[in-house]
Amino acid sequence: MPKLETLELGDPPCSETPTGVTVKGLVVLARRCPGLSTLRVHLQAASLSAPPTISRAIPGARSAAPQRACSLRNLAVGQIPLPDESVLVVALTLAHIFPRIVRVDCDDGNWDKVMDAIRLSRKIIKCSSKEHPFLHPEVTVVTPP
């Protein structure tokens, strides 16, 4: 469904639903629905704690990254519990699958931490991709006498 833009599965999600979409399912959605911008879904948060396989790590394996960048910007997850120790891995996994994600609607404070971690990782990537000004030969460093 390449032209699908919004997908809302079930009622406002996850209030007491123990099962749902896995990280593998999210990857399939990202691959098959590149126009998807809003997703409301019951997630298996535990599956997000294990990052997707990267093809470089396993020769001959296909990458879990979407072949085309999915345009998903908004994700609604409801009341999925997320342990503190899983926040960073979940954030990096979601940012890897959905590189344009800007909002996670949730009823649990740890998902706010996920969005904070996604924002921070983007800032780190942005800073590390810029050249340091002292690496330019035309820049002269002047030290006080």
Rg computed from alpha carbons, rounded to a whole number of angstroms: 19 Å
For the largest beta-sheet, the strand count, sense and barrel status come to:
4 strands, parallel
What low-confidence regions span 5 or more consecutive residues with pLDDT below 50?
A: 52-61, 134-144
Average pLDDT: 74
Proportion of residues in β-strands? 5-15%
Q: Would you count the extended β strands for me?
A: 4
Order of helices and strands: EHEHEHEH
Q: Distance N terminus to C terminus?
A: 67 Å
Helix content: 25-40%
Structural class: alpha/beta
Q: Shape, please? A: globular
Provide a count of the helices.
4
The order of strands across the largest sheet is: 1-2-3-4
The domain tally reads 1
Describe, in plain words, how this protein is organized in 3D.
The chain has 145 residues and is of the alpha/beta class. It has one domain (6-135). It is built from four helices and four strands. The chain has helices at residues 23-32, 45-48, 87-97, 109-129, and strands at residues 6-8, 38-40, 74-78, 103-106. Strands 1-2-3-4 form a four-stranded parallel β-sheet. Strand 2 (38-40), helix 2 and strand 3 (74-78) form a beta-alpha-beta unit. The N and C termini lie far apart (67 Å). 26% of the residues are buried.
